[in-house]
Amino acid sequence: MSVDPMIYEAQFFGFTPQTCMLRVYIAFQDYLFEMMLVVEGVMLKKLDGIPGCKISPSKIRKCTEKFLLFLKEHFDKLFSKMEEVLLQLVLNIPKNVLLPEDRVQEQYPYSEEQFQALQDELQQLQQQCRAEAVLEQELRAELEEQKVVKAELEKILQCFDGLENICREHGAGNFKESFALLTQSSKKLQDVLKEVEEKSKKMNQHDHLM
Questions:
Q1: Distances, alpha carbon 147 to alpha carbons 144, 160, 181, in Å
Q2: Nearest of 192, 9, 178, 153 to residue 89 by alpha carbon
Q3: How far is it, in rounded angstroms, from Cα 182 to Cα 185?
Q4: pLDDT of 77-104, one tens digit each?
Q5: Residue 141 and residue 92 in one domain
Q6: Are the beta carbons of 30 and 81 closer than 8 angstroms?
Q7: CA atoms within 13 A on the CB side of 24
């Protein structure tokens, strides 16, 4: 069998020429074996019908195997010549023939350096696409967080609106002014509470000294 991979032929036919020849060889060989079995069966029937025949079936089998070996040796020689002719003249694409799907390479030829540059550029674009996809995911996550914060702020604004309406209903005036006064009063109460705590500590210390 030929050791040439014949890649271009495999691209055109959809199979390697060597594979085709191997299948043809196996088919012929199987047919040869089957034919010899049929011949052996006919010989056994013919000899069985001859009175006084002393040829045993085992001897016939040896003769059949010997004849089969003889035929196989000649068949291999003939098939080798047939394979050479078929691979060169039938299953071979000439060097000057270009397949239709490869004609674009003839119109737009590229050197190895140009092809490598395209490969590098393609790899960079793929990396950029992956980076942009990650960035898009991060932006989507941030957008979801902003939606949650916006919803919480809307709840707080609704709460403030409700408090302002309550203040208006009870004549408390502007809610913002009331809230500012409330904040100032709360701060004053905190200062008074700190002052009371400090005086209480001093009194406790005085009681311990007494």
A1: 5, 20, 33
A2: 9
A3: 5
A4: 999 999 989 888 888 888 877 777 777 6
A5: no
A6: no
A7: 16
